[in-house]
């Protein structure tokens, strides 16, 4: 059987092909799954999608009509998939429940330190042989307070690094993590966390309850010299409200690896296009803002785990097994469909 994989980056392709070698054929496409590209999947029983795929009602209807029966998403988050429609159409949906939390936690700290110590500005200057220090002053992290919103596996890994810096630890989550408590974390309500933290990092999933978790009220409550990092999901931050606060000259630094309207932009080369997203265009002009293109997970370790889990999800589907990765249960096992032709 040939499996169709959408949104495959050039670095990912050899890893995917090697993982599936001898088990199933896989056709890798660099285009993302959306309403325009969904017809490409016609004839493929199994497809694999990336985190920026669009799997709304229209796309899922197109996939089902074309014979797709299983969707293996190569990410932990699944807010881009209409699971109710998938279930109604009888589509099996699986995700990657776990991969290296260190990849994201370490990158979140990379963003935090980069904006705190003005690394991008310093690098740009030295390329022009400008070696002045004016405007590059940062702050020690030791003794300052970090607020971690979401203390699951990634939040815990981030907290361990913060503990190594010698920081005061504040946490917010629906359930306390004993490992974080052991490190000295104090769990507080999010209002206190926003008010008291010098550095805030987001590690919660995007759900209806967490959309715009960092809204205008939260932003106004934060210290004027705070650092905010988001390496989770763009929709956690009200970006327009953030721009308003930045225009008022607030915050030491903002590090964003995600953006709430990133679909159709991130992972693509838009350098020769006119980007009509006024909010993003304004955001990247601030000297204390660093935006990266959803790359926190992008290490050989994490991507390797994601691909291995995706392979196991496909094999589980084909052999009628079910794991914790299944979001929409499999229908009874059916004989494999013939490979699609291209």
TrEMBL record:
<keyword id="KW-0560">Oxidoreductase</keyword>
<dbReference type="Pfam" id="PF02826">
    <property type="entry name" value="2-Hacid_dh_C"/>
</dbReference>
<feature type="domain" description="D-isomer specific 2-hydroxyacid dehydrogenase NAD-binding">
    <location>
        <begin position="110"/>
        <end position="296"/>
    </location>
</feature>
<comment type="similarity">
    <text>Belongs to the D-isomer specific 2-hydroxyacid dehydrogenase family.</text>
</comment>
<dbReference type="InterPro" id="IPR058205">
    <property type="entry name" value="D-LDH-like"/>
</dbReference>
<protein>
    <submittedName>
        <fullName>2-hydroxyacid dehydrogenase</fullName>
    </submittedName>
</protein>
<dbReference type="InterPro" id="IPR006140">
    <property type="entry name" value="D-isomer_DH_NAD-bd"/>
</dbReference>
<dbReference type="InterPro" id="IPR006139">
    <property type="entry name" value="D-isomer_2_OHA_DH_cat_dom"/>
</dbReference>
<dbReference type="Pfam" id="PF00389">
    <property type="entry name" value="2-Hacid_dh"/>
</dbReference>
<dbReference type="InterPro" id="IPR029752">
    <property type="entry name" value="D-isomer_DH_CS1"/>
</dbReference>
<dbReference type="InterPro" id="IPR029753">
    <property type="entry name" value="D-isomer_DH_CS"/>
</dbReference>
<feature type="domain" description="D-isomer specific 2-hydroxyacid dehydrogenase catalytic">
    <location>
        <begin position="8"/>
        <end position="327"/>
    </location>
</feature>
<keyword id="KW-0520">NAD</keyword>
<dbReference type="InterPro" id="IPR036291">
    <property type="entry name" value="NAD(P)-bd_dom_sf"/>
</dbReference>
